[in-house]
Amino acid sequence: MLLIPGLTGGAATRVDQLSPEARSVGPDGEVFLVFPADSPAVRAATHAQDDELAAVLEITDVAPVSVPHRIRGRAWLSGWLTCVPGVTEPGRMMLRLEVGETSVDDLWGTESVEPEDFARAEPDPLVSHEAELLQHLHSAHGDQVRGLSALLGERGSADGHRAVPLSLDRFGLRVRFTEGTGEGRGAADRTFDARFEFPEPVRDIASLRKAMHTLFDAALG
């Protein structure tokens, strides 16, 4: 969602009107957002003209599998918004967000990211496949994912725990374990995450398959 002072929270502006239809990152770290041409965000950027229009893009990362505490993280990209006319289909307008500051609050903790580091960052090779892969692991390899608890020592020794693959990247797999009887909703439940690192970063689906087999074999002893 795009947060713009004077628009966000106003009775005349719905939340969905501030959600871009598409977004992408340019070579210099700028973020391009596509909105309907008559959206409040486009009107605000057009009205600002040569003035700097401050805005914050808030991104929420939700796990693609059903799991307790499903939000995996949030990111906030703050900067200045301008229109980029003539590059989208009729009825749409592209907005350019020049990023001045970025902060992330996710499974690894809270951190600020410098604009230069954001511009140099490259997508993880699994990012476009992560949702499908996690869903496949959960539905077709649930017993093997649960068996990874054998690698946790006493921490994973409890009987009857549930395990859901939570996130996947080139460096490893994160699994959310839940112990108890309330499906992660009761006071008696104990939920914790465990990170399982691959022997080396994976480059593609083929090397991921090999890395996962290595993890599963290690859990079997």
Descriptors:
221 residues; alpha+beta; Pnp Oxidase, Chain A; Split barrel-like; 2 domains; 7-stranded antiparallel beta sheet; 22% helix
What's the topology here?
Layout: E1 2-3, E2 22-25, E3 31-36, H1 40-48, E4 53-62, E5 71-84, E6 92-106, E7 109-113, H2 115-120, H3 130-140, H4 142-147, E8 162-169, E9 172-179, E10 190-197, H5 205-220
Antiparallel strand pairs: 1-4, 2-3, 3-6, 4-5, 5-6, 6-7, 8-9, 9-10
Protein name: DUF2470 domain-containing protein
Domain DUF2470: 131-213
Pfam family, one: DUF2470
Radius of gyration: 21 Å
| Shape, per Cα inertia axes | elongated
* N-to-C CA distance: 46 Å
Class from helix and strand fractions: alpha+beta
- Residue fraction in strands: 35-45%
Mean pLDDT: 90
Query: CATH architecture of the largest domain, please?
Result: Roll
CATH domain class of the largest domain: Mainly Beta
CATH topology name of the largest domain, in short, is Pnp Oxidase, Chain A
SSE pattern, N- to C-terminal: EEEHEEEEHHHEEEH
* Major pleated sheet: 7 strands, antiparallel
